[in-house]
Amino acid sequence: MSRRGAFIVVEGLDRSGKTTQTNLLCEHLSKIGDRPVKLIKFPDRTTPIGQMIDNYLRSKSELDDHAIHLLFSANRWEMRSSLLQLLNEGITVICDRYAFSGVAFTFAKSLVASAPESTRKLTYEWCRTPDAGLPAPDLILFLDISAEVAKLRGGYGDERYEKAELQQRVREVYKRIQDDMQTSGVHWISINASHEMEVVKQEICSYVKDLSNGVNEPIKSLWLT
Known about the structure:
The protein has helices at residues 18-32, 48-57, 65-78, 80-88, 99-111, 117-120, 124-128, 147-151, 164-183, 197-208, and strands spanning 7-12, 37-41, 92-96, 139-144, 187-192. It is of the alpha/beta class. The chain has one domain (7-210): Rossmann fold (3-Layer(aba) Sandwich), CATH 3.40.50.300. It has a five-stranded parallel β-sheet, with helices on both faces. Helix 1 (18-32) crosses helix 10, helix 3 (65-78) packs antiparallel against helix 5 (99-111) and helix 5 (99-111) crosses helix 9 (164-183).
């Protein structure tokens, strides 16, 4: 049986360096592995659903917090078949944000003191449910950075979620998700993203080496147990 492609997700707070590091990781794996590498990003802002999300993130439209959470999830489900096809064809997939971002950001909004009553009623379990059944990653790399450090980086504040209090809550929720993933056997690695870009890159590369030539195990599903 041929080895399938590895599914690697990069998560983190806004301005933690995800875009830079996912691009560097794709370049690295293309050089050391024996298979093609594909980069995907969520939200995918090119689809009709993605365009609605883009307008919301740029504060060009308003949506109920339940509705926008479900749109983010639907945007990932749009890609499910294509993602599975890529992996089964032996292509390594690097994903910039995934279902964990959806849970982290929506549930974090419910923890902010100024949140409206309907948002405060959002539960962690409710936030997870729409993504149950999506393909589970083989490795999650979480770029950990404090909200204070992220705030000092260029472009901070350009989008709706880039607020210090919310980002701190998001970081707390990510820690809870990390515990969930480790309990369910999904490999989650936290990396100090406040270091220099090259230092972060080298640490990431050290963790993906064993996945560079594919995976033997079948693709698991997320959050079904």
